[in-house]
Amino acid sequence: KEEAIFPELAPYFVALGSAYFADTTEEIFDYDGVVNLLSQKKEKKVEHLVNPLFTSEEEFETFFKRHQKVTVPTRDITTYSGKAYLGLDSGSTTIKVVLLDEDENILYRYYSSSKGNPVSLFLEQLKKIRELCGDRIEIVSSTVTGYGEELMQVAFGVDIGIVETIAHYTAAKHFNPDVDFIIDIGGQDIKCFHIKDGAIDSIVLNEACSSGCGSFLETFAKSLGYSTQDFAKKAIFSKSPAELGSRCTVFMNS
């Protein structure tokens, strides 16, 4: 007959083992002795360091200004009348909403953590957009992408559902018709895809590990007492940045 035994002190076994081991040692250390031993301990060299992203603030400013050249103009939704196009992105950790006018100006945009309940957040935003549009603006088409594509399409009757790689390529091609390589850093995965002859030719994804992805970076930053924005600034100007992808996400967040 097989039996399973659950000792009452099972949760404390590891601590008990430490105590029993301490009881067997013949060496006795006082406080000053422990401090002295710790002070003699050599610092372990951190491995997997990489070169700085930017060697100076001037170099960063040049980079920043170059990327700021590609922007989407905005337009006041309260004064616009006409047709509009709605885009939704239900990602693994965040949601995004964009409403464009006929000239591809942004009438409305929204970005937020999904907070574990993207449906209610999208519903809240759609109600707000409807209120802002009134009878002046007609949303003639809507498209959704992302992890929650099918759920949102069913929940809100969205016209079109497309895979996120196509959505990303469509946006990238709008700004750079000759784009041939795209990196998409999402909340839980990273996608790299090559473009050839106007189509996605190949895609490479990270495997099971989400090290370096958005959700990990946010959690890791909070564990160090930083917001994601402040953490990014620290990383940008770090003199010896660490290669986070070289370590397990679970252990780095623990």
From TrEMBL:
Pfam family, any one: BcrAD_BadFG
Domain ATPase BadF/BadG/BcrA/BcrD type intervals: 86-253
InterPro entries, A to Z: ATPase_BadF, ATPase_NBD, Dehydratase_Activator_Redct
SUPFAM superfamilies per UniProt: Actin-like ATPase domain
Gene3D superfamilies found in the cross-reference section: 3.30.420.40
UniProt-recorded name of the protein: ATPase BadF/BadG/BcrA/BcrD type domain-containing protein
Species of origin: Fusobacterium periodonticum D10
Lineage: Bacteria, Fusobacteriati, Fusobacteriota, Fusobacteriia, Fusobacteriales
